[in-house]
Specification:
Elements (H helix, E strand, L loop, with lengths): L3 E5 L3 H13 L3 E5 L2 H7 L7 E5 L8 H12 L5 E5 L4 H6 L7 E4 L4 H19 L7 E4 L2 E4 L4 E4 L2 E2 L4 H11 L8 H8 L5 H18 L6 E4 L3 E4 L3
Parallel strand pairs: 1-2, 1-3, 3-4, 4-5
Antiparallel strand pairs: 6-7, 7-8, 8-9, 10-11
Helix pairs in contact: 6-7, 6-8
Length: 230
């Protein structure tokens, strides 16, 4: 079955170009020009991936608002933000909302398609076939790769796809330091070091919200991060 992608972009030319390119790759695509139309289109069923512009018409942060509403429905839904200027990446990479990837509008169609394909590969790699189901347990952490679920001391941790990949990459080899480059390679991310740092900070906050004493993710100065199981 073809993967379903929703594009929310207020510039008609960009919206049409992305829609055409993705359809040529065999994806099912629905495109919307604003947040209300997108919400209505996704009311009954979420797609497999959403590509959303930050500024939507008169809503300067309409994409942020849409992402909040989608995240309330699903922590694991892959979301790609579109940005018009590099400076906007500072806001997005702060992970106000937990997007999985960030694209500037000068990206080529080939690059866009590669990033979309990378996200879907991550999903398939995590889920795997039933016979390849992998469960990682490290101390109080329990990760189910096939279901993309995380539990800490029996409580579910609502991680995005990218956040799950980072935790999985660290926790499957406790005590081993993973550089930011290695984490990017594991998750097939195309971001800068600061964005990886922001992802890790957001992950920590989610665990600390469940357990104020959480301290399993250690930053190793000049090297990267490691998972310490106690």
């Amino acid at each position: 079955m073809a993967k379903r992608i929703v594009i929310v972009e207020d510039e008609p030319a960009i919206r049409e170009n992305y829609t055409t390119a993705l359809k040529r790759q065999g994806y099912e695509v629905q495109a919307y020009a604003d947040r209300p139309a997108a919400l209505k289109g996704m009311a009954s069923k979420l797609p497999d991936l959403v590509i959303v512009d930050i500024g939507l018409g008169d809503e300067h942060e309409g994409g942020f608002d849409l992402c909040r509403e989608l995240r309330a429905r699903s922590a694991a839904l892959p979301i790609i933000f579109l940005t018009a200027r590099d400076s906007e990446l500072d806001t997005v990479s702060g992970l106000r909302l937990g997007a999985d990837d960030y694209l500037t509008k000068d990206i080529t169609l080939a690059q866009l398609l590669a990033r979309v394909a990378a996200l879907f590969r991550r999903i398939e790699a995590l889920r795997g076939a039933a016979e390849q189901r992998e469960v990682v347990t490290s101390g109080e952490l329990h990760l189910d790769r096939s279901c993309m679920t995380a539990d800490w001391r029996g409580q579910p941790v609502e991680l995005t796809l990218t956040e799950f990949w980072i935790v999985y990459s660290l926790a499957r080899l406790p005590g081993h330091v993973k550089s930011r480059d290695q984490l990017m390679q594991d998750a097939e991310l195309f971001v800068d070091d600061a964005t990886i740092t922001s992802h890790v900070k957001r992950i920590r906050r989610k665990f600390i919200a469940l357990d104020p004493a959480f301290d399993c993710i250690e930053a190793v100065y000049g090297m990267g991060y490691r998972w310490n199981s106690h």
